[in-house]
Structure prediction request, 344 residues.
Amino acid sequence: MIEELKSHIKSVEEYTTQSLDEVEAFRIKYLGKKGILNQYFAKFKEVPKEEKKTFGQTINQLKQAAANKVESLKNELAQQIEDKGIYGDLTRPGEPIEIGSRHPISIVKNQIIEVFANIGFNVSEGPEIEDDWHNFTALNLPEYHPARDMQDTFFVQNPQNDGNEDLLLRTHTSSVQVRYMENNKPPIRTISPGRVFRNEDISARSHCIFHQVEGLYIDKGVSFKDLKQTLIYFTTQLFGKSKIRLRPSYFPFTEPSAEVDIYWGLETETDYRITKGTGWLEIMGCGMVDPNVLKNCKIDPKEYTGFAFGMGIERIAMLLYQIGDIRMFYENDLRFLKQFKSTF
Ligand code: DAH
Prediction:
């Protein structure tokens, strides 16, 4: 029996745990009412006289060892909890982290930027609150020009209210062209993505806030064929489709001006619907920068020529992702947004 007690003492001394619940279980196992110690105390009567002394000493050693162990484990664990402080138990499994995803408008914007960056275009930006000069006048739209009606403008009252012109929310990113030409000398190769605002009724196809990308290339000897070649490169890279056509059009800031259609095809029912049965889709406006615009930006039109283009990002995103309603982009519905994954 003494040997048994000694082996209990040994395992008590070796015992360790990280859990307070287990310390309590250990205490009950040895020191509880029906615990190991009491079982041995009960056997005291049966021990032969000459062994009683050693038995008593050993059983007391076991009791002491168990009590010491309980005490020291409790202290140790309490100290650990205190050390972890406000961070709690650092070994606990972490809370699952929700990984966000990019907005489809950002994904498409970044794709467009990449396509143009590969042929030497940089990215420029301008303010969303603009003045009349950069949004209209410098772009060859004088105050009473009928083309101003093409864009219903949100005006912002001049904060100083000093009789000077009111500010406005830019109606297109063409305003950044002007700012860029005012501040940089040719050769210029820049694209300007950004948010634009128009006082339009909200529907499945149009919104009062949307995004555009403006492109501008100014250098000596830039011609319409450079424009066309750049557009073919762009549509091939972005859509995998190289068949385009340029329809004569009018913009006050370009001359000549054109609208760009891409041949989308008529393979599916959706193709029929979105191209109204023609196979062709309009994707942007473009043209050769009007000499008046160059002059307004202090660039000599006799020395330099250039082209410009402008496209709506929502429209392109709707085509690429087959989205039927522009309002989806602004509703922040996670079930919609989580479907878009990108490496950009
Ligand atoms: N600013 C035009 C719009 O908002 C788009 C545009 C057309 C931009 C032709 C251009 C361009 O630079 O050359 O509808």
Remarks:
- The beta strands are 122-123, 129-130, 155-156, 167-169, 188-197, 209-219, 244-251, 254-263, 280-289, 305-312.
- The pocket of 3,4-dihydroxyphenylalanine is lined by residues 172, 174, 214, 251, 254, 285-287, 308-310 (CB under 6 Å).
- The chain has a mean pLDDT of 91.
- The chain has two domains: 2-87, 104-340.
